[in-house]
Amino acid sequence: MNNTKKYENNTELAIQATGLVKKFGDNFAVDGVDLEVRKGTVYGFLGPNGAGKTTTIRMLATLLQVDGGYAKIFGHDLVEEADKVRSKISLTGQFASVDEDLSGIENLILIGRLMGYSRRKARERGSELLQAFSLGDVAKTQVKKYSGGMRRRIDIAASIVVTPDILFLDEPTTGLDPRSRNQVWDIIRALVRNGTTVLLTTQYLDEADQLADRIAVIDKGRIIAEGTSGELKASVGSGTLHVRLLDADSRPQAQKLLAEILETPIELLSDPTALSALVSDNERVAKALGELASAGIKVTDFSLGQPSLDQVFLTLTGQSDTEDKTEEANS
Amino acid sequence: MTNFSSHSDNNNDTEKSGNDNGLDEALNKAIANRMRPSKPNGIKTSLTFAWRALLKIKYVPEQLMDATVFPIMFLLMFTYLFGGAIAGSTADYLQFLLPGILVQTIVTITMYTGIELNNDITKGIFDRFRTLPIWRPSVLVGALLVDTVRYSLAAFIMIGLGLVLGFRPDGGLLGVLLAMVLLLIFAFSLSWIWTTLGLIMRTEKSLMGVSMMVMFPLTFISNVFVDPETLPTWLQGFVEVNPISLVVTGVRGSMHGIVTLEEIVWVLLSSAIILGIFAPLTMYLYRNKK
Description:
Chain A: Residues 15-245 form the ABC transporter domain. Chain A starts with 12 loop residues before the first strand and ends with a helix. Helices cover 39% and strands 26% of the residues of chain A. Chain A has eleven helices and 14 strands. In chain A, the strands form three sheets. Chain A has a six-stranded mixed β-sheet, with helices on both faces. Chain B has two domains: 1-35, no CATH class; 42-288. Chain B contains 13 helices and no strands. Chain B has helices at 2-15, 22-32, 42-59, 65-87, 90-109, 111-122, 125-131, 138-165, 172-200, 204-220, 233-241, 243-255, 261-288. Chain B starts with a helix and ends with a helix. Classes of the chains: A alpha/beta (331), B mainly alpha (290). The interface between A and B is large, with 64 and 48 residues.
């Protein structure tokens, strides 16, 4: 292994990665990912299916060989000190990472024993976690009989039998109902309060916004934007304004008016009475709606919402799309 | 289950009233517990994985069928089906057949090791085990330890039934025990072929298919059922180098008290070769599994 390019050791960082690459055949699943995650923070990977989120996490968790680049976890080299890395990390994968044939408590005892607890201590720790995760009543039930939310919680409980320094969570709330999702969020916040660094992947902007100190937006194996949720939103626009008019004929006029005041492109939706725009300044929205009224354009309803992941991607990837096209044109 | 849902309803009611309820305190306390036990050694982790395999048997006792029903079925079937035709009498044939069919049965049930492993891989738990800071082969060694118990169980049942049917080993108790030890060593080594395949094959079905394809010729084109001298010469050549034949010769010889040192060495040598190739191969695949 060539170590000449090793970077400086920054003790503030839990994860430090440079140019991570993973190839599956000719396809670059991860194509040069740089990453700096500070200790004790939550870092969110935001991206659609197949963007390379899971592959990156699996490399950092020592499950996949790295095809290029370097990474350090708490100062330990991912490849050369894999065993030291493993003693720092814990992974909750997308699929149940517990033994479904065993009961909740048996699963936790199993992990506890493997981590070096005595049989008695492993049982004590298991019961403590089950109580804390509201799973006390199903401790002796086989995990395959658990509901989706309970399964997710036992997954996370198994990951923190020995509280890890870094917890990797791969789409921790996908498919959960709102209450279960809130419970998982509470657990993540409690972990961070107690000093654990969390790296999570999500498809929901909302989730990244709620939990993550910093967010990386991933698409096609590359990080296309990185920053705090505030920074990302500022670059995308803080929300989306939807306006529906009473009369389709007044749409061109409304479009012109909104564009002037909001100073942003106005999208015409397939509904001939509807328009939408990404906005960053809510006061201007109020002003624009007022202007519509005074111009005599009747608005039947309007809404102001967070930009959806789709919109984030459209905005952030818009540029790289055109780059691709010029490349194609040149070749 | 009903208890649980009422519990979480309760939790929901207090959700908005702040974070200071008892549950959150329990959560905080559990998470704040940063106890780090010292790292266990490979023997301890292997035994823990063996405990896991035993628990699985507790929940699904049917999985012992291969170690209990198979041996009985095979022994009765082949003794009475072929006994008259091959040896003229079932009692005579049993003396020849039992050691052979014992090997065949045990060797066949080693296949289930690979299937268990393949099952683990398709589920997420395999990933968790691979991210634990433990001696990596222990997950396999633990499972194989329990399998060895299963093999012993199958062997006891078969030999017991054989004795009832009229099997009389001239080698006595010592001979039978030696035969069992040879067989268990071979079965343990052979299991690593199935763990290798278990890591390569993508589904349980394809794994079963390939395992059967390997198993059938190996067990049938051997000296399990018939004396190889009755076979055409080209087939005798294969039978002689077939490791199953070597084991059958060793086991048969031990049970009847006529085993030679050379025969024992051949069993151990073929076990060592299989283990030497497939254990490292398994571990390589295990480390680099995608």
